Automatic annotation (TrEMBL):
It comes from the Eukaryota. Residues 50-174 form the Autophagy-related protein domain. PANTHER family: AUTOPHAGY PROTEIN 16-LIKE (PTHR19878), AUTOPHAGY-RELATED 16, ISOFORM F (PTHR19878:SF8). Keywords: Coiled coil, Repeat, WD repeat. WD repeats lie at residues 227-268, 269-310, 311-353, 362-394, 395-430, 454-482, 483-515. The keyword Calcium does not apply. The lineage of its organism: Eukaryota, Viridiplantae, Streptophyta, Embryophyta, Tracheophyta. SMART domains: WD40. This is Autophagy-related protein 16 domain-containing protein. InterPro entries: ATG16 (IPR045160), Autophagy-rel_prot_16_dom (IPR013923), WD40/YVTN_repeat-like_dom_sf (IPR015943), WD40_PAC1 (IPR020472), WD40_repeat_CS (IPR019775), WD40_repeat_dom_sf (IPR036322), WD40_rpt (IPR001680). SUPFAM superfamilies: WD40 repeat-like. GO terms for biological process: autophagosome assembly. Residues 50-161 form a coiled coil.
């Protein structure tokens, strides 16, 4: 279309040029015809008009020259216009080519837009499908949540019923065990080989093979050995009866036996599945029992180093354990599941379970082996009958959690330590306070920080959060020595039954042997 338009404009320009040339020729001929009489008159010999006509002829020649000049200018202008017309024609052709390219691009964009529109419609359909599926899944989730809540409520009800039945079974089992113990007691009473009993301060004590003995305790002042016993902390340590061998348990799940005379490691008892929080050893020195954060108790044979029993039944970490002082058969443990369990090592199972609302941090058998002392998070000291599971007595021992219980060697005094940084001594028969020990700077570092009494019952040792070990005189209730060697809070202290040495352990797993 643009091409035909340019061609018609060129034709029109050519026609205009031809018409202008014809007009110029006609004018030239007309002027020549008009001037012909003048030329004839000039040729006549009229002397009078010669000069006048000569002037007119010169004027006419000048006009004719101006006309020729104008014609020349018009011709040049016409040539310029023709050149411009040709340039305009070339530009129009370029524009036409550009328009064609743009039309192609527009067509391509339209096709692409149509494809995108089609894809968008498909995406919208897919999104609508996903939204509908999500709504269905949400509905199903709400239904499943409702079912889960219903199931959880039913499960809780069943657990409550199961616990009730378990308690009934425990009571029946306690009755059977009591009957069994009564029968066994009668049989033993008729046996001529029954062990003799002796009366000590009104409390029955049963002698073990190899009667216990001790020397007068010395006041330690020097760190003889500094042992890197465990990694991650040592929470429990005790001496083997009538021996200088030290047993330690740590957060690295290991129980180790040390010779305090040489500072050498004697043996390593492995197999514990959690951190060792408390230790005890039977009076015949045949078994070591560890309370573990894995909810279990582990019993090792000292001679073979192998695990004899794994006592299971607690549902939370076991934090305290003690063995009967009258025999090596009965063990008592407490855990953060609000239970205290009595175990029979011969049979290897739990013989009684005591359930109480306040968690127990520390335990100790009385001298007769029939009652136990327990120290609780609520700060109270309680006395229990292990056969019936009944609470015999309780007293508010501390204003904060009880962390440790130690029985004196004669069984007349029980020592308790608490998070209130006080160490109280109670008369076992009346549960009245017979002594209170405290010191500036002595701070109990954890809920399971263990203090101890010397074998002659004249001194008390307790660790502090600043790494020091304080030693009190029981008779004077004052500090007689402060031992400093640890670089972290001291978690436990234990005194050898031979009167020396004293051992202490800290949160870095370092054990110090003091003489």
């Amino acid at each position: 279309m643009a091409k035909s338009c340019c061609q018609s404009q060129e034709d029109i320009a050519n026609e205009a040029i031809k018409h202008a040339l014809k007009a110029l020729r006609k004018r030239h001929l007309a002027e020549e015809g008009a001037h012909a009489p003048v030329f004839e008159a000039l040729s006549r010999p009229f002397v009078s008009q010669g000069s006048e006509w000569k002037e007119k002829a010169e004027k006419l020649e000048e006009e004719l020259q101006q006309i020729y000049k104008a014609q020349s200018r018009l011709s040049e202008q016409l040539v310029v216009e023709v050149a411009e017309s040709r340039a305009s024609k070339a530009l129009a052709q370029e524009k036409e080519a550009a328009i064609n390219d743009l039309q192609k691009e527009v067509t391509e964009f339209r096709d692409e837009s149509a494809q995108l529109k089609k894809d968008l419609e498909e995406k919208i359909k897919a999104l609508e499908l996903i939204i509908s599926e999500n709504a269905e899944l949400k509905t199903q989730l709400e239904q499943m949540t409702l079912k889960a809540k219903t199931t959880e409520a039913e499960n809780k009800m069943l657990v409550d019923r199961w616990m009730l039945e378990k308690m009934k079974d425990a009571e029946r089992l306690n009755e059977v065990n009591a009957l069994y113990e009564d029968v066994v007691g009668r049989l033993k009473a008729s046996d001529l080989e029954k062990l003799a009993k002796q009366q000590v301060d009104g409390i029955v004590r049963q002698g073990e093979e190899g009667a216990e003995f001790f020397l007068e305790s010395t006041n330690p002042s020097t760190c003889k050995y500094r042992l890197q016993a465990h990694e991650g902390g040592c929470a429990s340590a005790l001496f083997v009866y009538n021996s200088s061998k030290l047993i330690t348990g740590g957060h690295d799940r290991s129980v180790k036996v040390w010779d305090t005379n040489t500072g050498a490691l004697s043996s390593n008892l492995s197999g514990c599945l959690g951190s060792v929080l408390d230790l005890t050893v039977t009076h015949d020195n045949q078994s070591v029992i560890a309370a573990s954060s894995s909810n279990n108790l582990f019993v090792w044979d000292v001679n073979s180093g192998r695990v004899r029993h794994t006592l299971t039944g607690h549902t939370d970490k076991v934090c305290a354990v003690d063995v009967s002082k009258a025999s090596s058969r009965h063990v008592v443990s407490s855990a953060y599941d609000r239970t205290i369990k009595v175990w029979d090592l011969v049979k290897g199972y739990c013989s009684n379970t005591i359930i109480f609302y306040s968690n127990c941090n520390a335990l100790s058998f009385s001298m007769d082996g029939l009652t136990i002392f327990s120290g609780h998070v609520d700060g109270n000291l309680r006395l229990w009958d292990i056969q019936s599971g009944k609470l015999l007595s309780e007293v508010a021992a501390h204003s904060a959690a009880v962390t440790s219980i130690s029985l004196s060697r004669n069984g007349n005094v029980v020592l308790t330590s608490g998070r209130d940084n006080i160490h109280n001594m109670f008369d076992v028969r009346t549960l009245e306070v017979c002594g209170t020990l405290r010191a500036t700077g002595n701070r109990v570092s954890s809920n399971w920080s263990r203090s101890c009494m010397s074998p002659d019952d004249n001194h008390v040792a307790a660790g502090s959060a600043d790494g020091s070990v304080h030693i009190w005189s029981v008779s004077k209730s004052n500090i007689v020595s402060t031992l400093k060697e640890h670089n972290s809070p001291v978690l436990c202290c234990t005194w050898s039954g031979l009167g020396k040495p004293l051992a202490s352990a800290d949160k870095n797993g370092v054990v110090c042997v003091w003489t």
